[in-house]
Specification:
The protein is built from three helices and two strands. By secondary structure, it is mainly α. It has a domain of 53 residues. The radius of gyration is 14 Å and the shape is globular.
């Protein structure tokens, strides 16, 4: 973890260095742009929904996710990540 910042609502955030598959990051950035969010805000939302047992996207949102995955060549049947 790196620098810590505190937002106006008192939430502390840290800068992380997370390695992800390049094409998946492109999909996430495109989704963030569509929702007028930063990449960090999108990831926070997805994780919070997942931890609550909810879905982050409605049916229309999932269609868009699949469309973007196709554009960027991300396959949902991709093998599990390998360690570095």
């Amino acid at each position: 973890m790196r620098a810590t910042t505190t937002s106006a609502n008192g939430v502390k955030r840290v800068q992380t260095g997370v390695r992800m598959e390049r094409r998946l990051v492109k999909v996430l950035k495109a989704l963030a742009e569509l929702h007028d969010l930063s990449l960090g805000e999108l990831l926070e939302s997805i994780v919070q929904h997942a931890f609550a047992g909810d879905h982050s996207f409605n049916a229309a949102g999932l269609v868009k996710v699949r469309e973007l995955m196709g554009i960027y060549g991300v396959h949902s049947d991709a093998p599990a990540p390998e360690g570095d």
